């Protein structure tokens, strides 16, 4: 370790002790990036930083010591860790146009889905109030029971609150009982 330390000092690199777990400012160069960039800093790029330092780490497997280059105060130097988000302006400059277009499409689709959900929720009570079920309703219900039992179980655990609300239940509790009461009053259509 003394040889590696001496070599670093001979190269004019300030040698420090390895940062501890709670040392928030000292980071290895490979863990940093320049603001607005995606690629990690290289030792060559960081060598001109006024806070360029190194420490020596011993590897017991290879029984050798190797230098680790770092920054003594990455925040003051204007660097970012990989976990730090880029600024919006920097991100816009870094993302390719097709990725920005894809994100824009996702935002638009999410807005359309929320809008359509309102329309669907207003339409469902009208559907439920019909005297005769729509064609294929029995098959749809059978498939829902057969293939989506987990979703039905989740709804049952929550007392079928959303379904009860759509069917006119005004209370926050008792959705399952409300639906059961409606089923008791319902008549089964004659087979065709």
Write a structural description:
- The protein is of the alpha+beta class and 192 residues long.
- It contains eight helices and six strands, in the order αβββαβββαααααα.
- The protein has helices spanning 2-10, 43-46, 88-94, 97-128, 137-147, 149-157, 161-166, 175-185, and strands spanning 14-15, 27-28, 32-34, 52-59, 64-71, 79-81.
- The strands form two sheets. The chain has a four-stranded mixed β-sheet with strand order 1-4-5-2, with helices on one face. A two-stranded antiparallel sheet has the order 3-6.
- A hairpin with a 4-residue loop joins strand 4 and strand 5.
- The longest helix has 32 residues, at 97-128.
- 11% of the residues are buried.
Query: In this structure, how is the largest beta sheet organized?
Result: 4 strands, mixed
Number of strands: 6
Radius of gyration: 32 Å
Report the helical percentage.
Answer: 40-55%
Strand percentage lies at 5-15%
H/E order of the elements? HEEEHEEEHHHHHH
Query: Rough shape?
Result: elongated
Structural class: alpha+beta
| DSSP summary: helix tally | 8
Separation, N- and C-terminal Cα atoms: 90 Å
- Ranges with pLDDT <50 over ≥5 residues? 87-92
Strand order of the largest sheet: 1-4-5-2
Round the mean pLDDT to the nearest integer and report it.
84
Tags for this model:
about 190 residues; alpha+beta; four-stranded mixed β-sheet; two-stranded antiparallel sheet; 8 helices
